[in-house]
Amino acid sequence: MDPIRVIVNNCVGCSLCVKACPYDAIALSGPPGAREDKPTAVIDLAKCTLCGACVEACKRYKAIVITRTTFKGQDVAAYAGICIYAEHRSGKLASVVPEIIGAARELQKDLSAPVTAIIVGSGVRALTSELLSYGVDEIWMIDDPTIGDFDEDVQAELVAEIISEKKPEIFLGGGTVIGRSLLPRVAAKILTGLTADCTELAIDPSTMLLRQTRPAFGGNIMATIQTQNHRPQMATVRHKVMRPADKVENPKGTVVELKHIPVPKSHLEFLEFVEEKTATVNLVEADVIVSGGRGIKDPKNFALIEKLALATSGAVGASRAAVDAGWIPYSHQVGQTGKTVKPKVYIACGISGAIQHLAGMKGADMIVAINSDPNAPIFDVAHFGIVGDLFQVVPELIKRLEAGG
Amino acid sequence: MKVIVCIKQVPDTTNVRINPETNTLVREGVQSIINPFDVYAIEEAVRLKEKHGGTVTVITMGPPQAAEALRESISLGADSVYLVSDRAFAGADTLATAYALACAVRHLGGADVILMGRQAIDGDTGQVGPGVAENLDIPHVTDIRKIEEIADGRIVVERLMEDGYARIAARLPVVLTVVKEINVPRLPSLKGKIAAKKAEVPVLKASDIGADPERLGLNGSPTQVMKIFTPPKPSGGKRFTGEPAATVAAFLDELTAAGITIRKQ
Fold this sequence. Notes:
heterodimer, A: alpha/beta, Alpha-Beta Plaits, Rossmann fold, 7-stranded parallel beta sheet, 5-stranded parallel beta sheet, 22 strands, B: alpha/beta, 9-stranded mixed beta sheet, two-stranded antiparallel sheet, 6 helices, 15 strands, 31% strand
């Protein structure tokens, strides 16, 4: 039997599924199989990826079903608690960590389970008091001088060992460069599900499963995903989306050192880290970002963007159009194929607002758009839109800001 | 030097628009392309071959029409291509995909370097690269912006981080995922285009690559998509139009009223 079927008797030929299918795998067609003379949905199995979008679209008629063979999962009941991965580098916790703990503590309200943290590395004991201050109940630690910050093969091995021993039912990490490299490796070791870069996490009240919501297709669609038969349910959490955990008055959590787990030797060798201080601060952490797009017209004009960034203590961003034109390095690119940012204020100058760009900056607390085209899509997402020539508006803005306006 | 590149055929999402009336994706005229990040991986593989000799093999897991992406890979410099395609793969999440690709790589005799783009632009997960590496029990490094050197079974790469880059050495074989900074892909040559047209695309089925059927496709995928929806469309906020000095002044007043300061503190 095919894993996806159309129940012809239920299909009314409404074509909602055709529209919902992201893969162009469904068409309406007449007989054979059709009811009377009405067209019904026909699924092209060669194109279908069984994503389930049509099943969702057809909730009302229940005419499309996906059958999944329940395969061998783990003993789900043996797993309990919410565990987070405490990412760190150069002796500091990653700035995403309080956000993941914040998300875990929110889930804790529905799950009434402990929030734990895994930390592995060299000298990590020094980071445990900060971790506990965010309300973590228990830390599972491997502190070993041979574990380098970038030894992800070893870290993945140790994290997998800890998870297999401690059996948390949820395991969350940051949607950072390291988190999105380490957690997939861990998931592949312990053979469980992992959802990338979630922007929303919740506990399903009926099944008590973790509902993991994330953007896909460059933010065009959102998908809610769950891991039913495997544990832990793993997800990486997009940086700068979740509210960081508040510090607790008297941290009561404890540190458990797992000395019995042997530390293997890495196949990776860290040589050096080179900090890049282009223009201003790191885009992902910046409170203000000033971005330039196609409307900048010339690489020389990025000086104007940099000047506004300086006047706001902000970072310089760019649209894909500006990067593809070679006006500014890729490291400044904001968007689906660049960085995802969540500053307090995002100022888009001469950026039309293609979906791929919006995907990377929609999360800003406040979006300001400066564009001469009043119909530019960027104005749809902007809280404040200034319609005008950026070569007049931006210098005026800089003048006012420098004058203390 | 044997290099295998894993690519994915994706809808060109930069051209995807939402129909405001039905609130669904408008697919008409949306082409299937090689995932843009993977084009950089192919280019880097070809450059490795030019420098160190050897072969470039490009593979993809996908439906029959993904053969088109493989033909395009030939025009971009691939020596051989394989389509990993079987109904048993349908519905695979990143875990099952990584497993199947790793089986295919092993079936092809492995490689010194396995390259792929940092993520596909439809799923945006970036999880398959590390998953393939784990299944092959070899190291991986993500977000590579430069391959500095390969010598004596050791590779030195620059990995793009949020705040700079890290120089990392790895033992071969290794899986690397690349960012766009790594190179500027060449355009297909005429000779390449002709070769692409003539190329047969061999298909590897689940049984060919010795994969455990229980770990493939929908059945081998722990994650399930419960719901897909379009995010609510924003309606836009306050507009300022007119003479620049006045609009900027009005805008800054509004900003102050909203309790926001953007001036350097």
